[in-house]
Amino acid sequence: MTAPSPKGDSMIGLTLRHYRIESKLGAGGMGIVFRARDTHLDRPVAIKVLPAAASADSDRRGRLAQEARAASALNHPNIITIYEIGSEVSDGQRVDFIAMEYVAGKPLDRLIGRKGMKLVDALKCAIQVADALAAAHASGIVHRDLKPANVMVTDQGLVKVLDFGLAKLTEPAKADAFAQTESVQIPALTEAGTIIGTVAYMSPEQAEAKDIDSRSDVFSFGAMLYEMLTGRRAFLGDSKLSVLATILQKDPTPIRELAEGVPRELEKIIARCLQKDARQRWQSMADLKLALADLVEDIDANRLSSPSPASRQKGWRRWIWPAVAALLVTSGAAAYAFGRLHKTEPPSYSRLTFRRGDVTNARFNADGRTIIFSARWDGAPSQIYTAVPGNRESRSLGLPEGRIISVSPTGELAFLRGSGDEGTLARVPLAGGTPRDMLDNVIDADWGPDSEKIAVLRTVNGKTRIEYPIGKVLYETDSHPPVSMRLSPKGDWLAYFEYQPQIGDFDVAVINVSTGVKRYLSRGWRGLGYLGWSPKADEVWFSATRLGDEPAIRAASLAGGERIVSQAPSFLLIRDISRDGSVLMAVTSTRIAMSFHSDAEGKDRDLSWLDTSKLFDLSSDGSQALFLEVSYGEGRNTSIYLRKTDGSPAVLLGYGNRPALSPDGKSVVAIQTNPNRQDLVVLPTGAGEPRFLTSKGMRYEQAEWFPDGRSVLFTASEPGHQVRTFAQDVAGGQPRAVTPEGVRASRVTPDGKYVVIVRGDKFCLQPISGGEPRAIGPAGPGERPLRWTPDGKVLYLSRIPADGLSVQFLRLNIATGEKTEWRAAAPSDPVGVGVSSAAITPDGREYAYSYQRDLSNLYVLKGLK
Predict the structure, then answer these.
(1) Which domain holds residue 417?
(2) Which of 112, 217, 232, 248 has the CA that lies 20 to 30 A from 556?
(3) 15 inside domain
(4) pTM above 0.70, yes or no
(5) Distance of CA 785 to CAs 497, 616, 765, 775, Å?
């Protein structure tokens, strides 16, 4: 149904595309905001309908679309998510609208009150706003209309910043609408440009219609924080023009005269925000956010000065040093940028290894020259070697099979025994000796600067912990383990990649070892290539990619901000960084391939499509393979392909994760992940439209089909509950719990009555209708159910050994509990191989598997800055 020009309540009940208008939320200079229902995804949304005059201007529509797309690209928990930009035409009149995330809360201007907010509440909101603006500025987006009305706060205290990039698209206001609270665009006082924004929060450069940058948002932020603390606007006047004059010519009343209990340090932070000259303000929102965070730490630790004159002077002296430091950092950054522009010497590379295989890890020795590394050459087990730049030969240390983990400042090695990702941590002097075991179930470790304490990442009672020193838990999770844990040179910070199970991304996180406070430096990464600390320990350097990214070494600063250190045509894995800035890296060629075997052909067929083909399912007759191209997709959703096993071209079905093929091969169920929700989507393999199943806040892990193809079985967690497994009809209806909380199930039996669960060391059948599970056979390490035979008498299992070089298929006889090896599969060339997934047909005559091949060599890179 199309919609008329927006007239408030007259739109309620109408539909814009698939958004059904339910109620009016408010109105402003940019139009009317409604609460609506997304009928496709059954979720509430906010719809902003633009004025008809704005819709009539094609240039403004184009600018609107451009800015909204930019805002929608900002992936940040404190920034409103834009879902769609659309338009409808009725009676010859165009209606433009924006569909965005609906936030159940109150705008900040309703929370301030006449006397302002409590100090702790104001700072809690302000830091979140600063974090959002820092992320926007890093992406080149300046808000231009920051004010309390554009900040939403939920009942839980979560902040959402609204209207990114929209203020400069507003229409000129009429004289009777020239209100101080509106976002307006008015004729400039000079010919330099146009004044855009809400006057009470404009920066001086905005008021004079000059070019602006992110420092304009810093001024508006200071004006807003001033109001949050005092309940009074920083700049007042009887008319809009008098307010503009006040902004340009006067300073606001000192906060201490309007509000009690505001630390002088905070007053100085705000005063710096409100400097008339942009060069005298905080030069980045990231620095400002860090200053506020430090202030909160001081408040929590009761380190702030009392209001006595003596303590005020002391506080001033303490806070002048961050100001001077910020000035020095800014000046240094400018000098560095100038030097980079005129530098002619490129970074130098020195190759260390020349054999075919995969370097599994590497570290500098304490002398900064000798390199200790582990590698799997020519398909052999991982061994530990030493090498020196300039010498093409490396020397084996003669240690047991394992992977180097860390080298202490005194030259003692920590290594992980065996070929798996988890094992026994052992130590041995580089000079020689017998290795001594330290700890079991370790994934990663890093020596502290004193060579005595060591940080470990290990598994305890089914959860993964970071401990430093051993026994002191800094972080714990029952989700995917952290990746690439590294201590800073002084041992005061610990950095790692942290998995976000709700969205499937990894974030660069750091923990303050003394306080246990965690911070996120960079978010939203998929392909990981390890991390390390910069020579000055002020940045974390890392290699990682998002969907569609080109390989690069990136830097995330403790002070906020992110930059690219170096780019290359190959994926670079940072292995270590020395004190002099030399980078030890593995230059890696990675490919995920897919292989199919049919007994009728008697040989394997390569079914890889692009460069990252990960298998997820086989059709019952073995004629089609369902897989993902994990390096390509949209947002957080990878590309889903279906390919006939005769080698015909693959067909792109859509986007999502963990897909499963229906029994009749006509549909695929997958998980679609968006910034604030997940959904189950049913994609047709032929003609038809995608269908969505109601999520109701579910966070999905995996999904598969019932044998009749009319229902799906999925594992997910509801808000406030542990993970469990559900069944849901594809035609609609609510999910039905199949297992108790904390229990995952898979592989519905052919009669549709049972699912497979693991209880202890046994595979069991759990009745879908309820009742006690029944053991059917032993469950070994790494074994997972794959498929039932048509008669339901045998369950196929897969097992990937610790070395990852092959996949083994087993048959579990339900009647006898006997488990036998059926067959094994592996690439003919084992060098650099790690098998990752497998599938088999019900009769066991066809199977397929995916494997990753990593071929890498080690380099020392000098000259990066």
Answers:
(1) 354-478
(2) 217
(3) yes
(4) no
(5) 30, 13, 12, 14
